[in-house]
Amino acid sequence: MPKKLDIDEKDLRIIRNLYLDQTVSSRIEGEHQDLKPIKRAVRQGCVMSPDLFNLYSEIILRNLDPISGFKINGENLINLRYADNTVLIAESGEQIQELLDTVILENERMGLSFNVKKMECMVISKKSSNPKCNFVSKG
């Protein structure tokens, strides 16, 4: 990852050390529970979390560039991102499936996953009938 985004090795080592051997403890009815290791995910509330999410997202979404999206003023718009949300944009169901397949593949290559249960699909159309939105995800 650092070579793809020109991240200095020293900076990367600092980030890795911040996330190394993380544990979490919860409190139930005032009683602290045993520490449990955190095996994945960025820290909730950590000031670096949005930046880390954006770094990984950038690598993944750069691979969508050859796929056609939605043209606005001659520019190809494929995705929108805000915080930890990503919107994939396409002109057809086939294109959205291709985008989704690429994102899933790139996530797997980087050892990442996303919550398929949180995925939504919205169709905007001038047609009087309401087109169906179907996609297949193996996530």
Q: How does the SSE layout of this entry go?
A:
Blueprint: H1 2-5, H2 9-19, E1 23-24, E2 27-28, E3 31-32, E4 36-37, H3 49-62, E5 70-72, E6 75-77, E7 79-82, E8 85-88, H4 93-109
Overview of the molecule:
With 139 residues, the protein is α+β, with helices and mostly antiparallel strands. The protein has helices spanning 2-5, 9-19, 49-62, 93-109, and strands at 23-24, 27-28, 31-32, 36-37, 70-72, 75-77, 79-82, 85-88. Strands 1-4 form a two-stranded antiparallel sheet. Strands 2-3 form a two-stranded antiparallel ribbon. A two-stranded antiparallel sheet has the order 5-6. The mean pLDDT is 79.
Structure summary:
It holds the Pfam family RVT_1. The protein is of the alpha+beta class and 139 residues long.
Output the keywords:
139 residues, alpha+beta, two-stranded antiparallel ribbon, two-stranded antiparallel sheet, 4 helices, 8 strands, DNA/RNA_pol_sf, RT_dom, Retrovirus-related pol polyprotein line-1
